[in-house]
């Protein structure tokens, strides 16, 4: 048997013929697969086996055209209804995904700090000190600014920087050691200078941090972080000493009414404000008035709002709150709506009135402090800022996602000389030794009424899982979607 050898040209011819046969077979198979007949066959097979409502009847051979149209229109209707309800769920998911509910567990008073309490004498300046200041001097003009009074000598010119204003404020204001006669906390007598600190301006650096002394270690507490682990034995801000008047904070105050030179009210006494230790107070607007010569009981009710971790993924405009790391305030280490508003007010005053009120933060110590000649501008601007219908309102200051505030009550009764007996009510001797002393002295008790309370939580009302579950339920109900 002889072997036949093919030339190279012959091999190329054979390969070309085989490729043409393969391409023809492939085209025939493709044409067969996607022919109109096969398409109808596959569509009918799908309609006969699908779980979608009504579609299987379109493949029935025995039904009329009218019936086919009915089932076809019915399918279009359920698709429309499904799309409508799914769009409602999506709209709710995207527009209002956050819900505020009561927390599943109670919060104890040891989980949060005892509130910061700011107390101010209604007297803005001591008479004996003001009388020693020349009325034509720059210092007297600054006193008038402190008293919110106009100057009779509008030609007085001075550089009203914080350095100058602080010096005159220190000179004329009542010292804390004269106003605070007695302090006790948690049934323990305290040195008032340890638990109260003089606050002349909320822009001073030491007011933006927790206080620390030889006995108490400062803790970096914020509403978001709370207290950490491995706390020292004595730390600040302190937690509650217990419930009831005896375990709260008791303060005896001296109004020194004979030294009144100017007051922002028509009475002698004090203003106090109970607030979050991480916030700085605006006691002039929100302080509670307490007349001298009275004993006051002030129950405190903590109000705590926290947030679930899932809401962090939502946009700020949707959740309408800020986490502390998102605030990025210029002067404060902890974000809160109140602290944000202070910075907003200071910024607007500097832009419009070219000065900053003495109690507001300032970026530069050389910035001018608003004087009596600025009263018209500052009063008008503050009214616009506090108005909810004005474009100057600080609406960009959103609430914090974690917030701690305190509600308070107030009940007072006039004090009567000679009713304390030999025991002097358990207070130091000499405080209630005369009618004049009773007239100027006030006793204030701040205390919790319960050692647990129910907080609120911001959480997702509809998350991605709930959205997909609701969408699947609607598709299953209206159209018959199901998995095997």
From TrEMBL:
Protein origin, superkingdom: Eukaryota
Membrane topology classification: Multi-pass membrane protein
Molecular function, one GO term: ligand-gated sodium channel activity
Broad class of the protein's primary localization: membrane
UniProt key word Disulfide bond: no
InterPro entries in UniProt: ENaC, ENaC_CS
Pfam families referenced in this protein's UniProt entry, alphabetically: ASC (PF00858)
Membrane is among the record's keywords: yes
Keywords: Ion channel, Ion transport, Membrane, Sodium, Sodium channel, Sodium transport, Transmembrane, Transmembrane helix, Transport
Protein name, entry field: Pickpocket protein 28
GO cellular component, one term: plasma membrane
Residues annotated as transmembrane: 69-90
Localization, UniProt: Membrane
Family: Belongs to the amiloride-sensitive sodium channel (TC 1.A.6) family.
């Amino acid at each position: 048997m002889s072997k036949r050898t093919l030339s190279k040209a012959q091999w190329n011819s054979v390969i070309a013929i085989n490729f043409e046969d393969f391409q023809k077979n492939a085209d025939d198979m493709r044409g067969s697969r996607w022919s109109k007949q096969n398409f109808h066959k596959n569509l009918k097979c799908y309609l006969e086996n699908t779980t979608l409502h009504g579609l299987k009847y379109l493949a029935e051979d025995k039904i009329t055209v009218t019936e086919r149209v009915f089932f076809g229109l019915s399918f279009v209707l359920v698709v429309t209804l499904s799309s409508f309800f799914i769009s409602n769920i999506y709209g709710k998911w995207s527009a209002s995904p956050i819900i505020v509910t009561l927390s599943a567990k109670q919060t104890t008073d040891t989980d949060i700090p005892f509130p910061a309490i700011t107390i101010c004498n209604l007297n803005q300046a001591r008479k004996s000190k003001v009388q020693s200041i020349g009325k034509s001097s720059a210092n007297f003009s600054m006193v008038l600014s402190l008293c919110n009074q106009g100057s009779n000598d509008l030609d007085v010119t001075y550089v009203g920087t914080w350095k100058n204003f602080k010096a005159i404020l220190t000179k004329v204001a009542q010292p804390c050691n004269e106003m605070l006669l007695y302090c006790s906390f948690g049934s323990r007598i305290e040195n008032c200078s340890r638990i109260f600190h003089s606050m002349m301006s909320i822009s001073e650096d030491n007011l933006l941090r927790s206080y620390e002394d030889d006995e108490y270690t400062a803790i970096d507490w914020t509403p978001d972080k709370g207290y950490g682990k491995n706390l020292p034995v004595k730390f600040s801000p302190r937690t509650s000493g217990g419930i009831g008047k005896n375990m709260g904070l008791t303060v005896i105050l001296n109004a020194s009414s004979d030294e009144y030179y100017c007051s922002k009210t028509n009475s002698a006494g004090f203003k106090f404000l109970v607030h979050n230790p991480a916030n700085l107070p605006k006691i002039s607007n929100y302080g509670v008035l307490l007349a001298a010569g009275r004993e006051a009981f002030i129950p405190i009710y903590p109000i705590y709002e926290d947030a679930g971790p899932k809401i962090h993924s939502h946009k700020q405009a949707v959740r309408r709150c800020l986490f502390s790391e998102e605030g990025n305030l210029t002067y404060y280490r902890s974000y809160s709506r109140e602290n944000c508003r202070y910075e907003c007010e200071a910024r607007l005053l500097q832009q419009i009135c070219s000065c900053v009120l003495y109690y507001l933060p300032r970026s530069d110590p050389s910035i001018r402090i608003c004087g009596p000649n600025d009263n018209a501008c500052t009063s008008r601007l503050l009214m616009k800022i506090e108005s909810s219908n004005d474009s100057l309102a600080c609406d960009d200051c959103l609430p914090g996602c974690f917030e701690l505030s305190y509600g308070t009550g107030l009940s007072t009764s006039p004090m009567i000389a000679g009713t304390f007996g030999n025991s002097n009510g358990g207070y130091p001797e000499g405080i209630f030794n005369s009618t004049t002393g009773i007239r100027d002295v006030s006793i204030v008790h701040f205390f919790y009424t319960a050692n647990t309370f129910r907080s609120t939580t911001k959480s997702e009302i509809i998350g991605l899982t709930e959205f997909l579950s609701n969408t699947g339920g609607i598709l299953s109900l209206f159209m018959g979607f199901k998995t095997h």
